[in-house]
Amino acid sequence: MHVFLIAALTADGFIAKSIDQISTRWTSREDADFFAAKTKEARVVVMGRTTFETIGRPLPDRKTIVYTSHELTGFPPEQVEATQLPPAELLAKIEAEGYTNVAICGGSKVYTKWMQSGLINTLYLTIEPVLFGTGIRLFSEEITTQIRLTERHLLSDQTTVFEYEVVK
Ligand SMILES: NC(=O)c1ccc[n+]([C@@H]2O[C@H](COP(=O)([O-])OP(=O)(O)OC[C@H]3O[C@@H](n4cnc5c(N)ncnc54)[C@H](OP(=O)(O)O)[C@@H]3O)[C@@H](O)[C@H]2O)c1
Fold it and tell me: How many distinct structural domains can be found in the chain?
């Protein structure tokens, strides 16, 4: 099972300025295209309720699994599913449904939980030429994972995606 984390960061290491900020407001068109291509390949995305609310709708052509302790109403169940399962249990369920890839799409709380679980194989980190100075970081707790740079995807002269594999 290929489990990848996908995130866009400012050059000073933030994924958002505030929790209600949708990422596409400050990321590039090229990154949006990269995100769409990678997550459509995966066909299933996992995100936290806060991130889901910034987007406000399911991502087309992908199943969206949302971490929340609340009920999610008003969305077709085949497109949006709420979960509270620990990463290993959720991954087993996703695998049993026939998926071979899953995209972990944030935010900070969800990235942290999944990174700590040891289940992530690959990270795609886009660096955008933007500075926030303060805001939400990629992770919100201690992480002790080693990673290795495997590829650089030059999306434009301004935006690069750094692809890392997790050293197990
Ligand atoms: N730049 C990027 O690539 C990128 C990507 C994604 C997100 N973001 C940004 O990140 C920010 C949001 O990050 P965040 O860390 O504040 O929030 P988040 O991870 O998106 O969502 C946190 C919420 O998820 C639910 N949750 C998390 N773990 C859970 C568990 N084990 N069981 C049940 N529910 C759980 C809780 O919702 P309930 O309160 O409903 O229980 C929690 O409040 C936004 O600004 C967003 O735009 C940036």
Answer: 1
pLDDT digits (tens, 9 = 90+) for 103-135: 999 999 999 999 999 999 999 999 999 999 999
Other Cβ atoms within 10 Å of 100 Cβ, number: 12
Binding pocket residue ranges, ligand 1, CB within 6 Å: 7-8, 15-16, 19, 21-23, 47-51, 54, 67-70, 84, 105-110, 113, 136
**Domain residue limits at 41:** 2-167
Give 10-residue mean pLDDT values along the chain (168 residues).
98 96 95 98 98 95 97 92 98 98 98 98 98 98 97 98 97
Neighbours of 13 (CB within 10 A): 13
- Omega of the bond leading into 48 within 30 degrees of 0 (cis): no
CA of 67 to the centre of ligand 1 (A): 8
Q: What is the mean pLDDT of the chain?
A: 97
Residue whose CA is at the smallest distance from ligand 1 atom 44: 19
pLDDT of residue 25: 94
79: CATH: 3.40.430.10
